[in-house]
Amino acid sequence: MTRGQGEAGRRETGEPTPLAEELAALRLELETERARGAAELTSRARRIELLSEQLREARKELEQARREAASIRKRRAVRLVLSVTDRARPAVAAGRRFRAFLRDVRPTSTTEPTGPTHRLRASTAAETSLRERLVAVLIPSPVTTGPLVSVLIRTHDGIDRLRTLLPALDALAYRDIEVVLDDAANDGGVAANDGGVAANDGLATRHPNRIIRSSTDGPSSARDGQTATAGSGEFLLLIDDDSIPAGNHVLGHMVALLQTDPSIAAVASRLIHPRRTGPANGAVTRAPDLTLAHRGVTFEIRDGVPRARDLGSGEDPIGPAASTPAELQVARTACLLVRRSAFEAVGGFTPGYDDDTQDVDLCLKLRANGGRIVYEPQATFWHEGSATTRAASLETRPAPHHPNPDPVGSLWGPRLFRQVLLDRLTGAGAWSPQPIHVAITVTRDDPTAGFADWSIAHELGGSLADLGWRVSYLESWQDRWYQPDVSIDVVIALLDAFDVRRLPDGMITVAWIGDGTDRWIGQPWFDEYDMVLASSVASKELIDHRTVHLAGLLPPAPNLRDILIAWAAQPRIDIAIGPPRWEVVDNWGDYHFARALQRVLQRRGHATRVRLLPDWEGSSSNRADAAIHLFGLKERRTRPGQVSVLWIISHPELVTDELILRNDLVFAASDPFAARITERTGKPVVPLHQATDPDRFQPLPGGPHHELLFVANSRKVRRTVTDELTATEHDLAVYGRDWTSELLDPRYLRGRHIPNDQLASYYAAADIVLNDHWADMAEEGFLSNRLYDASASGAFVISDTVAGIAEEFDGGIVTFATGFELRSLVDRYLADPAARAEHAKRASAAVLARHTFDQRATGLLQELGPVLAARNPLILTTRESTSAEPVSAMT
Q1: What's 696's DSSP letter?
Q2: What CA–CA distance (Å, rounded) separates 255 from 250?
Q3: Nearest Cα residue to 629 out of 613, 641, 614, 640
Q4: Do 392 and 285 meet the contact criterion of CB atoms below 8 Å apart?
Q5: CA 251 to CA 379: how far, in whole Å?
Q6: How many CB atoms lie under 10 A from the CB of residue 21?
């Protein structure tokens, strides 16, 4: 049967055909889709109706809120806040746009970013044009003869550069020159002929000359010092082999300044980058061809200390700044004319300095000695820079020559930091053109709660910006603080939740306390602030009593600049202690000792900071005028620019003669030990005993009562007290770390730690406080700090005997020599409360009269004060460097 016949048969019998079935299915599907669409449309209509109703309700609420806001706006306080917010809104918007810009320009590649680049190389035509312009501005000098100038050239495989430099020196109009060539090449480099430059190398010069051979493995300051002594001229021209005179009269102008003004110690030249070879483009940190190399040295604050940087690098070489004579604090020795008498008066180059530091050190010495340094643009030289002998010698030098990572900071840190900070605070601009950068903490966690915070922050920021300072805001979000800009100098914390210990090293920190003083001083990092400002007398009294700080009182319009100037003028003292991290400091007695000493010193007008072991080598540690090392297990590196004080309060067995001799002042908490070390080393060691803080250790109530109290760590070894009382039936309570069942019956161990602020109440509540000494401490006559704290708390103390203990506490401490004697004394005095009280009173009176940290600070400053006063706190002694009042003697 054919297909047509089959279809006809199905139509005759009424059976559905495949086509009809397909059509019916399509109709059913269409109806289903229509029904589904209708249902969805109905649902959407319902949602739209619901949203419309919600929108109507929201509009009603918004209108009500607007009416309420209008009413609130009429209040005077709110009008004031809104005006501050309106002023701050453009700055906030600008900050958001800048952050968006940073996000846009941030590299997205996972490889190392190349950074922005610019055009480095110049054309021949541009160089010709600049040379023609220089001819027009460089005038002849009338000085062509006079004192002998020793031209001191240092080179390293620099024959090609010398072939350009020596003929240029021959062409100078000033005739009285000798050439001293320091050749540091490994293979001898420049050939010599009868002690002079060999003509067959193309290095002949008409001036008298000599060659000095020096190695590359020594510091450049030592080599340059050798070269300087070889010259016999009245003036010394320190010059790199790639610094070429741009005219014939450049040296005459430099000599004329030294001849006419005896106060000038050195004359710096204008250095211009010539047209050089190399890639056409480079990083923006590199100065392009035909721009100024530098016109001196200025300072910027990095890592909390001043760092030298070239002034004017990349500027128009004949622009107004580059063409104006100026007084400098520091100049580079790439081309510097120095008066020999001034050079020798300061000892020349200081041994141990490298290329980037020796010129800074030399100029600071010249300035400190009263000499002036001037920039003379008529003394113009071409200076290639990237191919200098200094770079070559640094590449071949195998390792540092001394363990000091920052020789300038170690020697000049305290004075340079104070000088630069005062210069920037007063806006003098002699040492640094950069404005002070202040960051103010704000929060975005709760916009409603943070509104007043933002208002205060921006009002304060506006007043600081009016001083010409740079102001930014350090924000937090969900208890996380944004990473601060490394250029920030001062952080002002308006929030008690800001942990200043997380800031980069060296930022100056100010706590600005408006309310919630209890919250502020309860933070473990509160004592780490450099300055604290309180908004009320009650807040100040609380801070003064319970912390190391002596708070300043905020007037209605606080002058933060004056506050910072006063802080900068204070002598700074670091206290170095051994804890390895902040999380464990409460378990270290040295930490509480240091805080108590810090508290007293700050009340004596000394800005004092406690530094843990990892911070001993921090950059900002260089800015302390003095460092007191509470000796423990580690030795601290001393610095020539600060007074190094060693106070031996423990571990006498680790003290070496070399350690004693390396420090400027040495104290020891033992009379016999101090006498023995003095006799052995010949260096005076001053007895300075342990002490207590009577504000913390006094008869305080609230501690748990124990018949016998022993607060000590075991150090995982046996201790006399616990061994001798191992079977006692009295109530013996031991608190401390590292006690195991082999060392102590567990029934006696009551805790691993007592917070230091609660320790006095434990001592006061005990019938007997027990004490013993480590064998090495007892043998050397070191008395435990526990004796002083417990006695000040009104406790009765029984201790093992140590030489001097009776005299120290006026017989108030009862001592034992044997275990039997200890047990007998315990039984006797537990039964005699009156005798305990009499001894405790005697010991307490002795401690409060002679053994407090206030008395120890007096003894310490009697020795330290004159040494600090003898050291000039500033590099310059005149007002030429800052408009601030001179810093007074530090006593």
Answers
A1: T
A2: 9
A3: 613
A4: no
A5: 6
A6: 10
Q: In whole numbers, what is the pLDDT of the chain averaged over residues?
A: 83
Give per-residue burial for 519-535: e unless 16+ CB within 10 Å, then b: ebbebeebbbbbbbbbb
Helix H or strand E segment including 375: strand 372-383
Are 305 and 506 in contact by the 8 Å Cβ rule? The answer is yes
C-alpha of 763 from chain center: 40
Q: Inform me whether the pLDDT recorded for 690 exceeds 50.
A: yes
Q: Which two tokens stand for residue 817?
A: 């020599």
Least confident of 226-240, 742-756, 803-817, 862-876: 226-240
Return d(Cα 549, Cα 761) in angstroms, integer. 24
**Backbone angles phi and psi of 326, in degrees to 5:** -155, 160
| Nearest Cα residue to 233 out of 144, 335, 152, 347 | 152
The overall pTM is greater than 0.85: no
Taken in order 33, 35, 38, 42, the sign of the CA dihedral is: negative
Strand-pairing partners, residue 383, are 243
Tell me the β-bridge partners of 151.
179, 237
**CA angle, residues 449, 450, 455, in degrees to nearest 5:** 125
Residue 628, H or E segment: strand 626-631
Nearest to 547 by CA among 503, 579, 517: 517
Size of the chain, expressed as the number of residues it contains: 891
CA triple 612-617-620, angle to 5 deg: 90
Cα(217)–Cα(395) distance, integer angstroms: 11
- Say if CB 498 and CB 514 are below 8 A apart: no
Q: Are 186 and 241 in contact (CB under 8 A)?
A: no
746, amino acid identity:
P
d(CA 130, CA 677) in angstroms, rounded, equals 69
**Would you tell me how many other CB atoms lie within 10 Å of the CB of residue 751?**
13
For residue 681, give Cα distances in angstroms to 233, 647, 655, 657, 675: 45, 16, 12, 6, 10
Rg (CA), the chain: 39
Helix axes 451-465, 76-105, angle to 10 degrees: 80
- Smallest CA-to-CA distance from 863 within 829, 835, 891, 825 is with 891
Cα–Cα distance measured from residue 244 to residue 132, given in angstroms and rounded to the nearest whole number: 16
d(CA 410, CA 360): 13
Separation in Å, CA 447 to CA 56, 441, 557, 599:
27, 14, 26, 38
Pairwise CA distance, residues 877 & 615, whole Å: 31
| 330 Cβ contact partners less than 8 Å away, ≥ 6 residues apart | 296, 297, 298, 299, 308, 359, 360, 363, 364, 367, 373
Q: Amino acid identity of 31?
A: E
Give the model's confidence band at 456: pLDDT under 50 very low, under 70 low, under 90 confident, else very high. confident
Q: Is 472 exposed, middle or buried (0-12, 13-18, 19+ CB in 10 A)?
A: middle
Q: Which of 184, 408, 402 is nearest to 297 (CA)?
A: 408
Closest-CA residue to 395 (of 243, 212, 184, 224): 184
pLDDT (0 to 100) of residue 321: 94
Place of tokens 């004394």: 825
Task: Supply the DSSP symbol for 852.
Answer: B
DSSP 287: P
CA–CA dist 142, 119 (Å, integer): 39
Name the phi and psi angles at 613, rounded to 5: -50, -45
Asked if residues 640 and 411 have their Cβ atoms less than 8 Å apart, the reply is: yes
d(CA 322, CA 272): 10
Residues 404-427: tens digit of each pLDDT? 568 888 999 999 999 999 999 998
What's the token pair of residue 300? 């910027």
Strands 264-272 and 281-283 come out as unpaired
The residue behind tokens 């002949």 is 204
Q: Map residue 523 onto helix, strand or coil.
A: coil
Q: For tokens 């008529």, what's the residue?
A: 378
